[in-house]
């Protein structure tokens, strides 16, 4: 979607309970905001649907959407995702690759502390004993690497719809913070860093020059968060920047 677009998004509720969708960071009409506990925006009953329709009045940038009814349960079960307003002048921008990373955490039950093994496990969304940490719904080594070529300019969009702060650290490079919560930052005000704390509800757009070939970790710097329930092996909220040329 682009600034000025009129959008209609039909949300079907296949859950056994009511739900809603909040367009996090978008300036939408009140009835489309998706918080039925305090607004006229409706709760979508099981088996029903609701059409969210609004005009995009925000500038290009990175945003999110997530459940906002029975939020503690539904959002901590993973009902969230990224939403990007595109720049109509993107052909004029120098970015060669554009990656979007949703960072989340879950309380997986059925595993003893210090154990990770193949299987199917339930999630307890009301527990604060969070032991699995993900990027785009996967934990390392099953996360997708960010492939780059030497000489390219890379954009990484970080979005945190979850519960905890995650200091995201990039090895071998420094990046510029070019946008925050979907709002561009003037070049004179941009910070150059290698680690950025991404709090719950925040989004950041980072850009870096791919000028140091190799395989470089990109991960949450909290030790537990890059090991998951195992607490020994590398895992969790961890991926790599991988040079392919």
In short:
By secondary structure, the protein is an all-beta fold. Helix content is 2%, strand content 38%. The chain has one helix and 17 strands.
Compute the number of structural domains. 2
Q: What is the number of beta strands?
A: 17
Share in β-strands: 35-45%
Give the CATH superfamily of the largest domain.
Cupredoxins -  blue copper proteins
CATH class of the largest domain: Mainly Beta
State mean pLDDT (0 to 100 scale): 95
Secondary-structure topology with pairs:
Blueprint: E1 6-12, E2 21-24, E3 49-55, E4 61-67, H1 71-75, E5 80-85, E6 97-106, E7 132-135, E8 146-148, E9 153-159, E10 166-170, E11 175-180, E12 183-184, E13 192-193, E14 195-198, E15 203-209, E16 215-220, E17 238-243
Parallel strand pairs: 6-9, 8-17
Antiparallel strand pairs: 1-3, 2-4, 4-5, 6-7, 9-15, 10-14, 10-16, 11-12, 11-13, 11-15, 16-17
Overview of this protein structure:
The protein folds into two domains: 84 residues, Cupredoxins -  blue copper proteins (Immunoglobulin-like, Sandwich); 147 residues, Immunoglobulin-like (Sandwich), CATH 2.60.40.420. Helices cover 2% and strands 38% of the residues. It is built from one helix and 17 strands. The strands form four sheets. Strands 6, 7, 9, 11, 12, 13 and 15 form a seven-stranded mixed sheet that branches. Strands 8-17-16-10-14 form a five-stranded mixed sheet, with no helix packed on it. A three-stranded antiparallel sheet has the order 2-4-5. It is flat. The mean pLDDT is 95.
């Amino acid at each position: 979607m682009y600034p000025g677009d009129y959008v209609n998004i039909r949300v079907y509720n296949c859950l056994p309970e009511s739900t809603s969708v909040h367009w996090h960071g978008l300036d939408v009409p009140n009835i489309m905001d998706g918080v039925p506990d305090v607004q006229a925006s409706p709760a979508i009953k099981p088996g029903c649907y609701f059409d969210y329709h609004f005009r995009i009045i925000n500038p290009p940038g990175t945003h999110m959407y997530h459940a906002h009814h029975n939020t503690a349960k539904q959002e901590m079960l993973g009902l969230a995702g990224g939403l990007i307003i595109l720049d109509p002048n993107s052909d004029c921008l120098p970015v060669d690759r554009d990656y979007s990373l949703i960072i989340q955490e879950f309380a997986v039950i059925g595993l003893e502390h210090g154990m990770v093994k193949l299987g199917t496990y339930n999630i307890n969304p009301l527990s604060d004993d969070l032991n699995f940490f993900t990027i785009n719904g996967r934990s390392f080594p099953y996360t997708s690497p960010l492939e780059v070529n030497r000489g390219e300019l890379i954009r990484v969009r970080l979005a945190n719809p979850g519960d905890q702060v995650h200091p995201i650290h990039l090895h071998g490079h420094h990046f510029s913070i070019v946008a925050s919560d979907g709002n561009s930052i003037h070049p004179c005000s941009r910070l150059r860093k290698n680690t950025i704390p991404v709090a719950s509800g925040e989004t950041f757009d980072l850009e870096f020059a791919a000028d140091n070939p190799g395989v470089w970790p990109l991960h949450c710097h909290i030790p537990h968060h890059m090991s998951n329930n195992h607490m020994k092996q590398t895992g969790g909220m961890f991926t790599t920047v991988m040079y392919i040329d």
